[in-house]
Amino acid sequence: MFGFSLVSLYSYYLRRIFRSSGLYPQTIQIDPQTTIHCWLPTKSGFPSKPPLVLIHGFGPSAIWQWRSQVQSLSRHFSLYVPDLVFFGGSSTSSPERSEVFQAASVAKMLEKLGVEQFSVVGTSYGGFVAYNLGRICGEKVEKVVIASSGVSRRRRDNVELLEKAGAEKISDLMLPSTAKDLRTLLRLSVNRRLHIPDCLLNDVIHEVLIIWGEFDQIFPLEKAFELRKWDPALYVAWP
Asked: How far, rounded to the nearest angstrom, does the alpha carbon of residue 154 sit from its chain's CA centroid?
Protein backbone atom coordinates (compact mmCIF):
# COMPACT_ATOMS: atom_id res chain seq x y z
CA MET A 1 0.00 0.00 0.00
CA PHE A 2 1.34 3.42 -0.92
CA GLY A 3 0.69 6.59 1.08
CA PHE A 4 1.02 10.22 0.08
CA SER A 5 3.51 12.23 2.11
CA LEU A 6 3.80 15.99 1.73
CA VAL A 7 7.06 15.89 3.69
CA SER A 8 8.63 13.39 1.24
CA LEU A 9 7.40 15.49 -1.66
CA TYR A 10 8.93 18.61 -0.13
CA SER A 11 12.20 16.73 0.47
CA TYR A 12 12.28 15.90 -3.24
CA TYR A 13 11.79 19.61 -4.01
CA LEU A 14 14.66 20.52 -1.66
CA ARG A 15 17.00 18.04 -3.34
CA ARG A 16 16.15 19.65 -6.67
CA ILE A 17 17.14 23.05 -5.24
CA PHE A 18 20.49 21.69 -4.09
CA ARG A 19 21.18 20.07 -7.46
CA SER A 20 20.22 23.25 -9.32
CA SER A 21 22.76 25.05 -7.08
CA GLY A 22 25.56 22.89 -8.49
CA LEU A 23 25.68 20.36 -5.65
CA TYR A 24 25.44 16.60 -5.65
CA PRO A 25 25.01 14.12 -2.77
CA GLN A 26 27.68 11.63 -1.70
CA THR A 27 28.10 9.31 1.27
CA ILE A 28 31.70 9.17 2.53
CA GLN A 29 33.18 6.50 4.79
CA ILE A 30 35.46 8.54 7.04
CA ASP A 31 36.57 5.63 9.27
CA PRO A 32 35.48 2.00 9.92
CA GLN A 33 32.64 3.19 12.19
CA THR A 34 31.34 6.38 10.63
CA THR A 35 29.83 7.52 7.34
CA ILE A 36 28.92 11.11 6.48
CA HIS A 37 26.34 12.08 3.88
CA CYS A 38 27.27 15.42 2.31
CA TRP A 39 26.26 17.66 -0.56
CA LEU A 40 29.40 18.53 -2.51
CA PRO A 41 30.25 21.01 -5.27
CA THR A 42 30.44 19.65 -8.79
CA LYS A 43 33.83 19.67 -10.48
CA SER A 44 32.94 22.92 -12.22
CA GLY A 45 32.72 24.65 -8.84
CA PHE A 46 36.00 23.36 -7.45
CA PRO A 47 38.57 24.75 -6.80
CA SER A 48 37.78 28.08 -8.49
CA LYS A 49 35.62 29.25 -5.56
CA PRO A 50 36.63 29.34 -1.88
CA PRO A 51 35.30 26.33 0.09
CA LEU A 52 32.52 27.03 2.61
CA VAL A 53 31.13 24.41 5.00
CA LEU A 54 27.51 24.82 6.17
CA ILE A 55 26.67 22.99 9.41
CA HIS A 56 23.01 22.60 10.25
CA GLY A 57 21.29 22.76 13.62
CA PHE A 58 19.42 20.16 15.64
CA GLY A 59 16.38 18.87 13.76
CA PRO A 60 15.84 17.92 10.11
CA SER A 61 18.69 17.07 7.75
CA ALA A 62 20.85 19.72 6.09
CA ILE A 63 18.67 20.24 3.01
CA TRP A 64 15.79 21.44 5.18
CA GLN A 65 17.87 23.98 7.05
CA TRP A 66 19.99 25.49 4.27
CA ARG A 67 17.33 25.68 1.54
CA SER A 68 17.16 29.47 1.58
CA GLN A 69 20.94 29.99 1.42
CA VAL A 70 22.46 27.48 -1.00
CA GLN A 71 21.36 29.13 -4.22
CA SER A 72 22.88 32.52 -3.39
CA LEU A 73 25.97 31.19 -1.58
CA SER A 74 26.80 28.72 -4.36
CA ARG A 75 27.46 31.66 -6.70
CA HIS A 76 30.42 32.70 -4.56
CA PHE A 77 31.58 29.54 -2.74
CA SER A 78 32.23 25.85 -3.27
CA LEU A 79 29.69 24.54 -0.76
CA TYR A 80 30.06 21.50 1.46
CA VAL A 81 26.81 20.75 3.29
CA PRO A 82 27.06 17.64 5.49
CA ASP A 83 24.42 15.88 7.54
CA LEU A 84 25.83 15.64 11.05
CA VAL A 85 26.09 12.15 12.53
CA PHE A 86 22.63 10.76 13.46
CA PHE A 87 20.95 13.26 11.14
CA GLY A 88 19.86 12.56 7.58
CA GLY A 89 22.05 9.95 5.93
CA SER A 90 25.02 10.11 8.36
CA SER A 91 25.59 7.39 10.95
CA THR A 92 28.15 5.77 13.23
CA SER A 93 28.55 2.75 15.48
CA SER A 94 30.81 4.77 17.77
CA PRO A 95 29.47 5.47 21.29
CA GLU A 96 30.65 9.10 20.99
CA ARG A 97 27.91 11.75 21.06
CA SER A 98 29.63 15.10 21.73
CA GLU A 99 29.92 18.22 19.56
CA VAL A 100 33.68 17.57 19.51
CA PHE A 101 33.02 14.17 17.91
CA GLN A 102 30.73 15.83 15.35
CA ALA A 103 33.43 18.38 14.53
CA ALA A 104 36.12 15.70 14.27
CA SER A 105 33.90 13.73 11.88
CA VAL A 106 33.43 16.77 9.62
CA ALA A 107 37.19 17.40 9.75
CA LYS A 108 37.91 13.81 8.66
CA MET A 109 35.43 14.14 5.82
CA LEU A 110 37.05 17.35 4.55
CA GLU A 111 40.49 15.75 4.77
CA LYS A 112 39.32 12.79 2.70
CA LEU A 113 37.91 15.20 0.12
CA GLY A 114 41.22 17.06 -0.08
CA VAL A 115 39.86 20.37 1.27
CA GLU A 116 42.88 22.10 2.80
CA GLN A 117 41.50 25.59 3.58
CA PHE A 118 37.88 26.48 4.27
CA SER A 119 35.47 28.72 6.15
CA VAL A 120 32.55 27.40 8.16
CA VAL A 121 29.08 28.60 9.10
CA GLY A 122 27.16 26.88 11.88
CA THR A 123 23.62 27.60 13.05
CA SER A 124 22.07 26.63 16.40
CA TYR A 125 23.54 23.21 17.39
CA GLY A 126 25.74 23.51 14.31
CA GLY A 127 27.32 26.57 15.92
CA PHE A 128 28.75 24.35 18.66
CA VAL A 129 30.16 22.05 15.98
CA ALA A 130 31.57 24.96 13.94
CA TYR A 131 33.27 26.37 17.04
CA ASN A 132 34.94 23.02 17.78
CA LEU A 133 35.84 22.54 14.12
CA GLY A 134 37.75 25.81 14.30
CA ARG A 135 39.61 24.60 17.38
CA ILE A 136 40.44 21.22 15.84
CA CYS A 137 41.53 22.42 12.40
CA GLY A 138 43.33 25.58 13.48
CA GLU A 139 44.92 27.41 10.58
CA LYS A 140 42.98 25.36 8.04
CA VAL A 141 39.91 27.40 8.99
CA GLU A 142 39.92 30.90 7.54
CA LYS A 143 36.66 32.22 9.06
CA VAL A 144 34.04 30.90 11.48
CA VAL A 145 30.48 32.25 11.52
CA ILE A 146 28.22 31.20 14.41
CA ALA A 147 24.54 32.04 14.04
CA SER A 148 21.89 31.78 16.80
CA SER A 149 24.01 29.44 18.91
CA GLY A 150 24.64 29.54 22.66
CA VAL A 151 28.20 28.22 22.62
CA SER A 152 28.68 29.51 26.18
CA ARG A 153 25.51 27.76 27.38
CA ARG A 154 25.51 26.46 30.97
CA ARG A 155 23.47 23.82 32.79
CA ARG A 156 21.18 26.39 34.42
CA ASP A 157 20.17 27.60 30.96
CA ASN A 158 18.75 24.15 30.23
CA VAL A 159 16.78 24.24 33.48
CA GLU A 160 15.22 27.57 32.51
CA LEU A 161 14.40 26.25 29.02
CA LEU A 162 12.67 23.16 30.43
CA GLU A 163 10.57 25.33 32.73
CA LYS A 164 9.55 27.50 29.80
CA ALA A 165 8.65 24.44 27.71
CA GLY A 166 6.94 22.55 30.53
CA ALA A 167 9.12 19.51 29.81
CA GLU A 168 11.03 17.18 32.12
CA LYS A 169 14.06 16.41 29.94
CA ILE A 170 15.88 18.14 27.11
CA SER A 171 15.40 15.01 24.99
CA ASP A 172 11.60 15.37 25.40
CA LEU A 173 11.83 18.86 23.93
CA MET A 174 14.48 18.37 21.24
CA LEU A 175 13.31 14.92 20.08
CA PRO A 176 9.53 15.30 19.90
CA SER A 177 7.57 12.08 19.46
CA THR A 178 4.09 13.62 19.10
CA ALA A 179 2.56 16.52 17.20
CA LYS A 180 1.95 18.29 20.52
CA ASP A 181 5.65 18.05 21.48
CA LEU A 182 6.76 19.29 18.07
CA ARG A 183 4.35 22.20 18.31
CA THR A 184 5.97 23.18 21.63
CA LEU A 185 9.43 23.09 20.04
CA LEU A 186 8.24 25.23 17.13
CA ARG A 187 6.67 27.74 19.51
CA LEU A 188 10.02 28.23 21.23
CA SER A 189 12.24 28.22 18.15
CA VAL A 190 10.18 30.17 15.58
CA ASN A 191 9.40 33.84 16.11
CA ARG A 192 6.09 33.90 14.25
CA ARG A 193 3.05 31.80 15.04
CA LEU A 194 2.66 28.83 12.71
CA HIS A 195 -0.71 27.23 11.96
CA ILE A 196 0.27 23.70 10.97
CA PRO A 197 -2.22 20.81 11.19
CA ASP A 198 -1.31 17.77 13.31
CA CYS A 199 -1.25 15.52 10.23
CA LEU A 200 1.72 17.46 8.80
CA LEU A 201 3.54 17.59 12.12
CA ASN A 202 3.15 13.83 12.49
CA ASP A 203 4.50 13.42 8.96
CA VAL A 204 7.60 15.42 9.91
CA ILE A 205 8.44 13.25 12.93
CA HIS A 206 7.57 9.99 11.18
CA GLU A 207 10.48 7.82 10.02
CA VAL A 208 10.33 4.78 7.79
CA LEU A 209 12.68 1.86 8.45
CA ILE A 210 12.99 -0.83 5.80
CA ILE A 211 13.85 -4.23 7.31
CA TRP A 212 15.09 -6.77 4.79
CA GLY A 213 16.30 -10.35 4.93
CA GLU A 214 19.86 -10.66 3.64
CA PHE A 215 19.15 -14.00 1.90
CA ASP A 216 15.66 -13.19 0.59
CA GLN A 217 15.36 -15.09 -2.70
CA ILE A 218 12.02 -13.57 -3.73
CA PHE A 219 12.89 -9.92 -3.12
CA PRO A 220 16.71 -9.66 -3.23
CA LEU A 221 18.50 -7.28 -0.88
CA GLU A 222 19.48 -4.92 -3.70
CA LYS A 223 15.79 -4.05 -4.09
CA ALA A 224 15.91 -2.45 -0.64
CA PHE A 225 18.78 -0.21 -1.70
CA GLU A 226 16.99 0.67 -4.93
CA LEU A 227 14.07 1.86 -2.80
CA ARG A 228 16.48 3.75 -0.52
CA LYS A 229 17.98 5.47 -3.57
CA TRP A 230 14.49 6.42 -4.75
CA ASP A 231 13.70 8.06 -1.39
CA PRO A 232 16.72 9.03 0.79
CA ALA A 233 14.39 9.60 3.75
CA LEU A 234 14.14 5.82 4.13
CA TYR A 235 16.56 3.76 6.23
CA VAL A 236 17.56 0.18 5.44
CA ALA A 237 18.42 -2.45 8.06
CA TRP A 238 19.32 -6.05 7.39
CA PRO A 239 20.62 -8.90 9.59
From this structure: 24
